[in-house]
TrEMBL record:
GO molecular function terms noted in the UniProt entry: nucleic acid binding; zinc ion binding
SMART domains: PRE_C2HC (SM00596)
Domain Pre-C2HC: 132-200
Region (Disordered): 1-38
The name this protein goes by in its record: Nucleic-acid-binding protein from transposon X-element
Amino acid sequence: MNSDDEINRSTQQDSSGKLENPNLKNFQQSQTPQNENECSIKEKIPYVPPIVIDNPKNVPQLLQTLSALTEEIVTGRMISSDKLKIFPPTSEAHRKIQKQITKDGLKSHTFELNDEKKIKIVIRGLDPDDDVSVIMQELARQGFTPELCHPLRHRQSNKNMPLFLVVLPKIPKSKEIYYLEYIGQMRVSVESLRKKQTPGQCYKCQDYFHHSSRCTRDPRCMKCAGNHWSRDCPKPKETPAYTARAITRPIIQAAPETP
């Protein structure tokens, strides 16, 4: 067999006159999803945040109980010696588990579901001393449904700035607020709330990477590290805040030394 015959056996010529390697073609076809609908369905599965439970007792039984509660298979993973991360399969399962955790008094934290996230914007140009209720009424008059509004304060002087944070439900109408030009007789501009460069801190337990509204842990005071809310602390407001490291330091120092 000559070299021309070998070339003819290793290649095929299609109708366009281009040479095509059958082995390469078969490989490419094997990498193509056979059911594109299945791939699109998998991509559309909404993300459900995990729930972290502190000091869990009888983990296998706990997972079985949560699975029976949600009628779904709930899985878990120990991320440290005293923390269990559980993975609710659906948003509805997540809500049921959170409700049960609160009812049972378990210590935990989690994160917002996608359908519970809010639109947070900042309004510039208003008087720092404007009445928040008047601002919310004016926004409602223009068709918006603000859930929260409060002035932003300067970190060093602690004085109100001409900036107001507004929280809105995540609906199509709320996105129109970016085109807002007037509140009453004041000209304003609207922008998205900038994300912090530092990790978010929970104002309840003083730990990081979660919000106080999703935390069922015991409160920890920022002023004295006591087991109460910072707002309930008898110390004056001017008391310097403890850092999270300073709060945990007395606990570490109080631990008995190992021989």
